[in-house]
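@channel anyone free to eyeball this complex?
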Amino acid sequence: MLPIRTAAKRGAIRVLCAALATCLVLGARAAHAQPGEYKVVVNADNPMTSVSRDVVAAMFLKRQTRWPGGAEVTPVDLGSASPVRAAFSRTVLGKQMAQVSAYWQQQIFSGRGTPPPEKAGDAAVLSYVAASPGAIGYVSAGASAPGTKVVAIRP
Amino acid sequence: MPSHPLARCLAFGALCVVAAAPARAQDASPKLDLHGYGSWSYGRTSDDNVYLGGANRGDYRLANFALNTTLTAGRHLRADAQAECNTGDDAELVEIDFAFAEYKFSDQLRLRAGQVKQPFGIYTEVYDVGTLRPFLSLPQGVYGPVGFAGEAYRGLGLTGRGSVGRGWTVDYDAYVGGQKLMKYHAPEAYYRGESLASASDETESETTRDMVGARAVLTTPVDGLSVGASAYTGTVADSVGHRRTVGGAQIEYLHDRWTLRSELAHQVQVHDELATGGYIEAAYAFTTHWQGALLYDRLRNTFAGVNAARAPSLERHDEGVAGINYWLSPTKVVKLDVHRVSGNRLSTPDPERLAEVIESGQLRTHTTLVRFGAQFSF
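replying in thread with the prediction:
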C-alpha cells in the first residue's frame, strides 16, 4: 500500500467529520410511524367478495392489470406517510415502505410504469373507489365505506 | 440562456416544470406524470490520479439533474421521455436519456419504438438514479466507461412479463437497432501512441449498428431473489466493421434489511479488445435511516496489437469500496464512500500528462478516493 499524502488525509478527515455531523443532526429528527389496521375496498359493482393476498399485491404493484372478468384494475394508495399504508404494504405487499418506494422508482425511471395515484385520506380513497368500476383501495379499519364494498383477503 | 453550467441546469429544469404544469393540472386523460432525480458529490483522491470525478485537489463540481415525463393516453398507448443535465470537470452536458412510445397489447406483450433505455443487467435502465443504489456511483467494473452497454438503444423492442410456474415469473426484453456508448479511451490511446492533447481525447464515442439484443430476468419463489442474463451483438460503425458481442449474468436478493447484488459481463470486440468485469455488492440497513455497504469490483481489459508491458496497470481495475448512508426518506439520501483502487484502467492522471507520468516512472497504481454527496428523487 502506497503512502497517502498528508493533504489528502486531512481532506478526508474533514469530509468525514462534516458527513458525520450532518447525519447526527438529521438523525435527531428521525421519527417512526406506528402501523394501523386497514380493510380493502372495491367498487360496489365489483362481483368479487374475496381476493387472495398475492393477487392484491400484484394489483397494487401493477403486475396484474385485469380483474378475472376482464375489467381494468385501477388501484389507489394512501399517501406514503400514512401508517395505514405502511401496515398494508408490510402485510399484503410483503415490503417495507422503503422497498415499495424503490420498486416504483425503478419502474418510473426505466420507463416501465407509474405508481397508483395517492390520496390524502380515507374519504378521498373511498370517493375514488366508489366512482371507478375497476378500483381497489384500502382504508382504516374503522372507516365507514359507503358506496364501496369491503372484500376479504385470503392468505 | 445563463452562462454558468449550474444556472443552465436550473433554467432547463424550470422550463421543463413550466412546460409540464398545464397538462398536469388538467387531471384528465391523457395523463402526464412528472418525476425526476438529482445528485451532487465532492471527491478527493490520494494522488495525481483522477477517478469518478475526484481529484487530488478535491472536486465539488459533479452534479446532475433529470426530469422524467410519462404521458399515458388510454389503456394501450404511453410515451416516456427523460432529459438530464450533468456538470463536472469543466464540462456540461444536456442530453435525452430516452424518448419512446409504447403500445401495450397485454401485460405479456408491449411494443416499444424510439430511443429506449437499454435492458442490460441490473442497473443500466436506472444508470444515474442515485436513490436506487447503495453507493454514490455504480460499480465501475461493469458500469464504468468501458463499453459493456450504452444507456439507450434506438430502434424497436418487445417487452413483457409472464408467469412460468408457481411463484416463478419472467420479465423479458428483445430489441433491434443501434446504440452509442462512451469509453474512457486514455489507456488505449497511450498504448497506440495516439494524441491525448485535449480533454476531448479522453473519451471515445463508439456506435454499434445492426444490433440484436435480449434480456430475461427470472423472479423465483424465494422472496426477493431474482436471476437473469443479458446479451447483444452488433457491428461497430468504424471503417472495418468489427463485430461486437457482449453478454452478462446477474443475481439480486432484496429482502427486508439486506440488498445483495452481483453481476458478471464479458465483451468481445473482434480484432480490437476483450473485457471482463464483475462485482459483488452488499448493503445492510441498520435502522430506517442508517445503511452500511461494501463492494468488490474488478475489470480486465486487453487491447489487441499493443505492447501492454509498457504499463500493464492500464489494463486492469480492482476496487474495494465501503460506504455509509443516511436515508432521510426513501427518496433522499446522504452518502459517504471510501474507495481503494488498484490499477489504472479507469483511474489515471490527467490524460494529457499520462505519457509523461508513465515514462518518468511516476505512475501511481493505487488510488484512494473519498467521496461525499447527496442524492434525491421525486
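from a first look: Residues 1-5, 19-36 of chain A have pLDDT under 50 and may be disordered.
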